Amino acid sequence: MGRARFLILLASLACASAPRRSSLDDQRSIAATLDDLHDAAARAEEDRYFAHFAPDGVFLGTDATERWDVPAFRAFAHPYFARGKAWAFRATRRAVVVRGETAWFDEDLATDTLGAARGSGVLVLRDGRWLVEQYVLSITVPNGQFGAVRALLEGR
C-alpha cells in the first residue's frame, strides 16, 4: 500500500471512530442554551446572559438602530441588569435546524413588555458549547394591520 493510500485510510478510520453528536442531543442542547439565555435575562444575571454569546456575536433589536456587537450590546443592557430587572422572554414555540456545527432557530416569544414577539438567529458549536452568533428580536405585525403600523412609523 502506498503512503498516500495509507494516510487516507488512517484519516477515514479516525473520522469513523470519532464520537458523533446526535441530532436529538443537539436539539436539546440548543433548547437548553436558549432557555438559559432567556432565564438569565429574566433574573438579571448579566454574566450568565452574555456567556451565551460568541465573542463576535451580534444582537439585532426591534429598533432599526439596534445592531450591536457583544460589547456594545452589553454596554446598552448593563443598566437594566444592574437595576435587577432586564427583560423576560419565554419561548412558546421553537424550530431549530442543525447543519454540522451551525444551527439556525426561530422562536415565538411571550414577553412582559413587547407582547408577542419573535426571536431568530444562528448558533455555533465551539468547544462543546452552543453559542449565539446572531440573535434577532422582532415584533410581529398582523398583515391586516401593517398599513396602520407603516403610517405610524412614517409619522402620518
Structure description:
By secondary structure, the chain is of the alpha+beta class. The chain has a single domain, classed as Nuclear Transport Factor 2, Chain: A (Roll). The protein has five helices and six strands. It has helices at 3-17, 23-42, 46-50, 70-82, 146-153, and strands spanning 53-60, 67-69, 89-99, 102-111, 116-126, 129-139. The protein has a six-stranded mixed sheet with strand order 2-1-6-5-4-3. Strand 1 and strand 2 form a beta hairpin. Residues 13-20 have low confidence and may be disordered.
In short:
With 156 residues, the protein is an alpha+beta fold.
Strand order of the largest sheet: 2-1-6-5-4-3
In percent, how much strand structure appears in the residues?
A: 25-35%
Briefly note the structural class of the backbone.
alpha+beta
CATH topology: Nuclear Transport Factor 2, Chain: A
Helix content: 25-40%
**Could you list the spans in which at least 5 consecutive residues all have pLDDT below 50?**
13-20
Tell me, what is the CATH class?
Alpha Beta
Q: Tell me the distance between the termini.
A: 78 Å
> Roughly how many Å is the radius of gyration?
20 Å
Order of helices and strands: HHHEEHEEEEH
What is the CATH architecture annotation? Roll
Average pLDDT level:
89
